[in-house]
Each structure stands twice: as structure tokens, then as C-alpha cells.
Amino acid sequence: MSLVSLRERLVERLAPASEWRPDGRPARSDFDLNPEAPRAGRTLRPAAVLVPVIARPEGATVLMTRRSDSLASHTGQIAFPGGRLDPGETAAQAAVREAWEEVSLDPAAVEVLGVGDGYETVTGFMVTPVVAWLAEPPVVSPSPDEVAEVFEAPWDFLMDPANHRRDFYDPETGPRRWFWAMPWRERYIWGATAAIVRALRSRLYGDEAEPASAVDEDAA
After folding, report:
1. Is residue 207 packed enough to be buried (19+ CB in 10 Å), middle (13-18) or exposed (0-12)?
2. Rounded to 5, what percent of the chain is helix, strand, coil?
3. Interior CA angle at 81 toward 79 and 84, to 5°?
4. pLDDT per residue over 156-195, tens digit each?
5. Distance CA 132, CA 117 (A)
6. Are 59 and 154 contacting, i.e. CB atoms less than 8 angstroms apart?
7. What CA–CA distance (Å, rounded) separates 20 from 132?
8. Nearest-angstrom CA–CA distance, 10 and 215
9. 8 Å CB contact between 26 and 118
10. Whole-model pTM?
């Protein structure tokens, strides 16, 4: 798919950022693969992430980060720039602000195209993916307190369902926990980040057959 066609599809299939509402409900969640996990009634805290699609001549890429090893939670995990909404912010405003704070991504270079499906995390956040178009490769500088590394993953790799798999871990207490993963080179993209990518793929191109899980592969 050409860069022009990709941008057109994103605009067509995403919800306009202006239609975002702070009281929106998540369409997907960590519980989709773990329906038996405890899920008491709770008020979700609004958050947003920026999904920056970079229009490189050789093919679109997506900017991602590896979180700092010094953070109190989600240490070292692959993520999109993002975080909690400040009072009065929209999801798009928060995502662009967080990208500036985390990796110095110039807001003037960011063209917000729309928002994807809201995602509920097991930690109690309602995360809105804000998809943006970067016409030129950006100059970025990670904030050392938050980000250990900034990198780009190929759009075609992330959108290929053959690269999506269901992995799991067994906690010390409680049932097995399943999650989406899409390892790329030495980087292990998993959890909410991988699930948001997969939801975006579904929104843009439709659902595919379920991939094999780690248990299925072991049994093969």
C-alpha cells in the first residue's frame, strides 16, 4: 500500500479526534483474552497514547519507545508515548503533549488523523490511541527519566496478523494470564501496546483468523 493510500485509509477508518468524549467506553481490554480474571466495578482513569506513523519513502514505520529501567512500573516495556490526561485535556492534546515530554517530538510535526478503539487495562486505565501522521522522519531525544530508547518498527510488520501471537505467563497466585505479543528483532512488543496495534489492524483491514497460541505451538 502506498503512503498516500495508507493515509487515506487511516482518515477513513479512524474516528475523528473531535468526536472523542471523556466518558467514552472501551471497545477492547486486557480482559478480552482473560474473561475469568477478577474485574470489580471501577472508575477508569483516562489516558492516551500517540501512535506516530512516519511516512518514510521506503515504507511507513511506527515510532515506539522502550520505557526506562528506573520507572516504578512497566519497567523496560515497549510502549507508545503517552500517559494520563491532565484536567481539561482531550485525548489528542494529551497524546501530543506526552510525546513532546517523553521524546521531544515537535507538536508542529504531528498531524493527528483520528482515534482508534478505547482500551481498558487491567491496571484501571481507559487508553485512547491517537493516530498521527509524520510527513518527515522526526528528530527525537528521549527523556532519560522516562524513556530508555526510541525506535521505529515497520508498519507492514505490525499490521501482518502472521506476526501476532498469544503468549502467557503464570503468576504466583491466580490463573494464567494471556496477552498479545509481536516480537520484532530483539524487541518484545506485548501487552496493551500489542493489543492496541492489533485493534488498529482490525479497524483498518478487518479481522483475521485467530493466530496460534504459545500452548498450541508447544503441542504442535
Report:
1. exposed
2. 30, 30, 45
3. 105
4. 999 999 999 999 999 888 788 999 999 999 999 999 999 9
5. 15
6. yes
7. 15
8. 34
9. yes
10. 0.90
Helix (H) or strand (E) holding 193: helix 191-205
Q: Give the residue carrying C-alpha cell 478505547.
A: 118
Rounded Cα distance between 125 and 123, Å, is: 6
Which of these, 190, 148, 150, lies nearest to 33 by C-alpha position? 190
Residue 183 φ/ψ, nearest 5 degrees: -60, 135
C-alpha cell at 89: 485535556
99 phi, psi to nearest 5 deg: -65, -35
pLDDT digits (tens, 9 = 90+) for 134-153: 999 999 999 988 899 999 99
What are the CA-CA distances from residue 136 to residues 106, 109, 157 (Å)?
Answer: 11, 8, 20
How far apart CA 99 and CA 40 sit, in angstroms, is 32
The set of cell numbers assigned to 186 is 530483539
CB 197, CB 158: distance < 8 Å: yes
Planar angle of CA 7, 51, 113, nearest 5 degrees:
40
Give the start-end residues of each E strand in 57-116: 61-67, 78-79, 82-84, 111-115
Q: Between the CA of residue 54 and those of 92, 125, 154, what are the distances in Å?
A: 17, 27, 9
